[in-house]
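As a warm-up, study this chain.
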Amino acid sequence: MTAGRIIAAGLVLLSAAALAGDRDERGPIIDVHLHAYGSDAFVQPSPNPVTGQVPELRSEAEHMQATLAAMHRYNIVRGYVSNDNSPLEVLRRWRAADPVRIVATPYFEGTPGSPLPAIAALRTEYAAGWLGAMGEIGAQYGGLSADDPKLAAYFALAEELNLPVGIHTGLAAAGTPYRCCPAFRVSLGNPRLLEEVLIRHPKLRLYLMHGGWPYLEDTKAIMNMYPQVYADLAVIDWIIPREEFHDYLRALLRAGLGQRLMFGSDQMLWPEAIGMAVEGIESASFLTPEQKRDIFYNNAARFLRLGEE
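Now compare it with the structure written out below.
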């Protein structure tokens, strides 16, 4: 081996050791909000809204491998992945690639591109044992309120099968009603709309995706009144201005909700968003190490009842 190769090999080993050290120091992470896509999503992929960089990924397989690599790098030991307007077969392939780490969970909106699935068919898939949760339910994109009768059977099924359910709350990309989803309305993202659902289904394990942002007061009200409701911090932990995110997170902590906040990345087409989301939590200097561990792992483990598996 030449001197140059020895040096190069040494640098690789040092980098690997440093990365392993970061993973050990950080501890395990549960990401409750990830997405899988078919290859058609990468024909003309949108740029990362923060960095402006267009993904170099050009296929479902490349996206999956890049996401799994990012999960390994940041010590994400469990990821809840939904199929975001792609066939369920995409989720089957992700789960097959890493059945220990990947939990498959169906996405639906009630839009032409993501219709509400037939309840009987959905029940069959759960009975087969390969789906582990429900959601993201993106009903807001289809112009549906959380308490719309069209969604009633899905919440009933989730309660019956004791499934954790993630529902989209808050906002979406700027201009959404002018592009993909003409029925999308900001008002439909208010967590307050879930109250009648929670009254009808007291055993439903539900989490507010995107933390209910920017509906702070209604998020605090719903979470304080209904202790079975948790929230993930997905997308707001990397896509909105950092100061705004930290102010929102601090307000939820002041309201006594620190043990019901869960880490999520919502990496979408950009696997690098996983690291950006992790940094969004780690850079919150007001969080104690214990609070960070709660957000990164403990709260989700409790909500998902991982110790009961």
